[in-house]
Amino acid sequence: MQNHISFTLSICLLTLLASPSLVSAQQSDRPNIVLILADDLGFTDISPFGSEIHTPNIARLAAEGVSFTNYHTAGSCAPARAMLLTGVDSHRNGVPNIPEALPAEQMAYEHYQGVLNDKVVTLANVLQAGGYHTYMTGKWHLGHTPELLPSARGFDRTIAMADTGADNWEQRTYLPIYEQANWYADGAAHTLPDDFYSSKYFVDKTIEFIETNAEDDQPFFAYIPFQAVHMPVQAPREFSDKYAGVYDEGWTVMREKRRLAAEAAGVIPVGTEAVVTPGTRDWDGLTTEQRRHHARRMEVYAGMVDAMDMHIGRLMAYLESTGEYDNTIFVFTSDNGAEGSNIILPNGGSLLAPWFDLVGYNSDYETLGERGSWNAIGPSNATIAASPLTYYKFHANEGGLRVPLVISGPGIARVGDMTDEFTFVTDLAPTILSLVGVDGHEGSWQGRVVEPIVGADFSEFLAGDSSPIHTDSESIGYELGGNSALFKGDYKIVINGAGQGETAWHLFNIKADPGESRDLAGEQPELLSEMVAGYESYVQANNVLPMPENYDRSGQILGDALRQLRRQ
To answer: Is 67 left (phi over 0), alpha (psi -120 to 50) or beta?
Structure first.
């Protein structure tokens, strides 16, 4: 009789545990995740970091969570995205550079294809297996073929733009290196709606995907990699016009305003020195018409950031209306620093003017940023976006690698906090998994060997632990297109072979001197030698290939564009 009662109780217990209502309750207690990735957003381009650009919704997330002022990523989009989604170094996940910039000599090697390889597991894969709905809307740039699209890499529902960039107003490519703009929905070719604007559409589709499964109480992971503010920089006029006159004083004045505001906000140390990026033009040496055009480019840029923030706010409001906001972890960051390519000339013309004429683009002042317009801020304006850091996208200086990171939501006890604790892009995947209680993997996934996650889980730091995320003895190496760095404690060594033609390493204390104004290589030769040896170990461990002689990333991409133009 006693055995019968025990058996009956066991059956009842199993039945209760298997009950859909109980399973749903257990799942609904787990936090949702919204991972927002801006494109080419500079270090001080959001208001909590000292910007004049209106970003109240990102500022709200910062006030409700923690802002990281010493977070580093890759110098261009695809390697950053690959590391963000896998926690694996870019030379091991298949994306050491964007495929458009890989020289033929390197593409002969399997790990240098510029697309996410089959040796890595994505954050979406792990969360999907852990009971999460997984959604992605935005720029993918990790492969075009069916097995490489996000729908095959762990995402349930997707809207994906597979190229380096695309027009924000309509379905057309932004450079002649592509025959068309490659958009996909759930793995199939996709046609954009007539009323398309990228930031609006990505949030619309994210809300649609969440709403579709709202009744099952299963938690969701929404990855939103915006096109803002990648070129072509475009925004609705009502957003751009909000900044009319703001940039009329020029980049020298605006850089200093940003530096002082960042100091006041605690983003950088007081007294931080800023080095003007070589090649920056003299504002006073420009004609009135040139200054007018440059200022308008930044007005449109600010408008595009502002519009992105507004649409982020729409998602936040939707989650509040459904009661899910307080149970959602938000992560906001950028893939790399601001874009400094010099495609638009000071008078508003362009190196691509023949192609613009062919396809109907223009860079006219009167309609800059609107439908049919092609806009980019250029290298001198990029020094505003990166202020007080030096250089910008593609370079291994702080202006290319250091971007804002804001995290808020369940599990984050440092409310309203700002920290200069060093963090790296590969740290985000393991941290997100830990925050939601989903086990990662140790290099084995569904019966096969995969690359292990190398990033550090800093969830305990977010919960209030004062221990450092990375110890002073830990080295983190980095290389992209011939530009290299190694981080160790407060220090960084850096050399830019591509774009700057450097042949010697520099040494900086980037915690005390984020502007990289004081090269310590001559003062601390032993530390420099130690860190250079650490970088060589990184090269060997990750099979980092040397760059061909005379490699020119911009020349290769623009050369491809011009060759394609001649074929047309």
So the answer is: beta
Per the annotation, the verdict on 141 as an active-site residue is yes
Number of residues that this document lists for the chain: 568
Q: Domain 33-471 falls in which CATH fold?
A: Alkaline Phosphatase, subunit A (3.40.720)
Burial 444-466 (b: 16+ CB within 10 A, else e): ebeeeebbbbbbbbbbebbeeee
Residues 327 and 340: their CA atoms lie apart, in Å, by 38
| Catalytic residue chosen out of the listed positions 54, 72, 77, 506 | 77
Q: Where are the beta strands (DSSP E) in 304-433?
A: 328-334, 405-408, 417-419, 423-424
Domain locations in the chain as residue ranges: 33-471
| Nearest Cα to Cα of residue 141 among 46, 223, 200 | 223
Which is catalytic among the residues 91, 141, 294, 395?
141
Segment 289-345, tens digit of pLDDT = 999 999 999 999 999 999 999 999 999 999 999 999 999 999 999 999 999 988 887
Q: Which tens digit of pLDDT belongs to each residue from 172-189?
A: 999 999 999 999 999 999
- As given in the structure block, the two tokens for residue 213 are 């499964």
Tell me if the pTM is above 0.90: yes
**DSSP tag of 407:** E
Helices (H), 333-452: 353-359, 378-386, 398-401, 428-435
Q: How far apart are the C-alpha atoms of 264 and 464, rounded to whole Å? A: 24
User: To the nearest 10°, the Cα dihedral for 100, 103, 104, 107?
Assistant: -70
Q: Report d(CA 329, CA 53) in Å as an integer.
A: 24
Burial 527-566 (b: 16+ CB within 10 A, else e): bbeebbebbeebbeebebbebeeebebeebbbebbbeebe
- Each residue of 125-155: pLDDT tens digit? 999 999 999 999 999 999 999 999 999 999 9
Per residue in 456-480, pLDDT (tens digit) is 999 999 999 999 999 999 999 999 9
